[in-house]
Please model this.
Amino acid sequence: MALALRGSMVALVTPFRRDAIDEAALKRLIELHVESGTSAIVPCGTTGESATLSFEEHDRVIDVTVQTARGRIPVIAGTGSNNTREAIRLTKHAKEAGADGALLISPYYNKPTQRGLYLHFKAIAEAVDIPLILYNIASRTAVNIEPETFAQLAGIPNIVAVKESSGNLEQMSRILQMTEGKLALLSGDDALTLPVLSIGGSGVISVAANIVPRDVASMVEAYQAGRRDEAIRWHQRLLPLVKALFLETNPIPVKTAMGLLGMIQPELRLPLCEMSEANLARLKTVLENYGLFSKQQAASSKQQART
Model:
């Protein structure tokens, strides 16, 4: 499948049940996104708690995702690591499993230099011939990938896009300018999706799409179709929900919300833990104000009528 880097791509959670991957729930989530207009599924990223998955679990999540998607929706596998050899190993497996692309977070904790970042991504790109999206999020990795480094990396044919979570629109504009259109720009921050689209971005890898996939897809689609007033209305509607999904470290709030909505068991792996009571109350209020509990009740009633 050709990898069209446009629209709303979901940074998929990894559902757990009794500390094991809940494959049945994972398959249900994938079907939801196929039906809801999501442009691509991104498993095993930060939202998918990749840092606490074993190699075997990581491989299995990607295998199940590709097998369930069955070519109906692209799969972009999270395969990043702060260990270049591990990133190559994970990316090779993603290609062998049939993923359409891979998402590579910049090495965390090591604090590499800009040359080290360049060599890291270059080594992966040369080892595995699969479209690669680079993920820049200095708030988690301690090092920003500078626009000049992206300009160098844009010369490598299978590096095709950047997921930008710096929050810096000026930097994102410079990346587009300095890479001369060779890299697609994807928002890595739901709150900035509309501004990123306005400066030339082509989509988002979204956390909010885990619970409101149609709404996020509708916002991006409206903007790209030239219906900017509609896109702004979606942005304003989504903003309180997006803010609530980051009351605590991602993916704590989104998995909690999905648990409240009956989508998954809201299990997290330590060192991530359940939300504080105060933030949980705030999250519930936002979900109720958005109308998500009403939708849940309607879906439940519909399901009961079928049975």
Remarks:
- Strands lie at 7-11, 16-17, 20-21, 40-42, 76-78, 101-105, 132-136, 159-164, 184-187, 203-206.
- Residues 224 and 270 are 40 Å apart (CA to CA).
- Confidence is low (pLDDT under 50) at residues 303-307.
- The chain has one domain: 7-226.
